[in-house]
């Protein structure tokens, strides 16, 4: 049984929303965090949220930033693989904590934040938090309206 979108993506139905989203994207990607790290964070949050459209686009965009299949296949199990740098691990841990807000009373524990702050400056941390929140925003829109990954990429 094929799942179909309930409506076109709301961001495209409201032109001012696209402008705001583009500004968020630009801000998050202009603070010095490597593009590949942002793509890994996007992919991991999207996996947690079960957003097929964002998992698909996240993996494709990560490949454009030079990510290997080996690393992409391991993102869901990043803790158990040797493929990620300490900085990437800190960003992925921050992404998981900030995505799973209801899983614990202190959603982003001090240890998670401190490890991220060890690798990223204040503006980079701001960009990571903004990008994680933006990813979760995309995930929620896509889940609510049942947006799907493209079927024919060719």
Automatic annotation (TrEMBL):
UniProt keyword Oxidoreductase, yes or no: yes
Keywords, ordered alphabetically: Oxidoreductase, Peroxidase
Top-rank lineage group of the source organism: Bacteria
Sequence ranges assigned to domain Carboxymuconolactone decarboxylase-like in this UniProt record: 15-96
Keyword Translocase set for record: no
Pfam families: CMD
GO molecular function, one term: peroxiredoxin activity
Name assigned to this protein: Alkylhydroperoxidase AhpD family core domain-containing protein
Organism of derivation: Micromonospora auratinigra
Taxonomic classification: Bacteria, Bacillati, Actinomycetota, Actinomycetes, Micromonosporales
């Amino acid at each position: 049984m094929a799942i179909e979108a309930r409506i076109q993506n709301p961001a495209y139905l409201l032109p001012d929303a696209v402008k705001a989203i583009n500004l968020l994207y630009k801000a998050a990607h202009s603070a010095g965090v490597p593009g590949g790290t942002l793509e890994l964070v996007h992919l991991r949050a999207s996996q947690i949220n079960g957003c097929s459209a964002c998992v698909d686009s996240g993996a494709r965009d990560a490949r454009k930033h030079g990510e290997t299949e080996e690393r992409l296949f391991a993102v869901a199990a990043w803790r158990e693989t040797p493929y990620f740098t300490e900085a990437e691990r800190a960003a992925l841990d921050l992404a998981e904590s900030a995505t799973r807000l209801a899983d614990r009373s202190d959603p982003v524990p001090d240890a998670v934040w401190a490890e991220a702050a060890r690798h990223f400056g204040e503006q980079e941390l701001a960009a990571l938090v903004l990008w994680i929140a933006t990813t979760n925003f995309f995930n929620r829109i896509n889940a609510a309206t049942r947006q799907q990954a493209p079927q024919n990429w060719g």
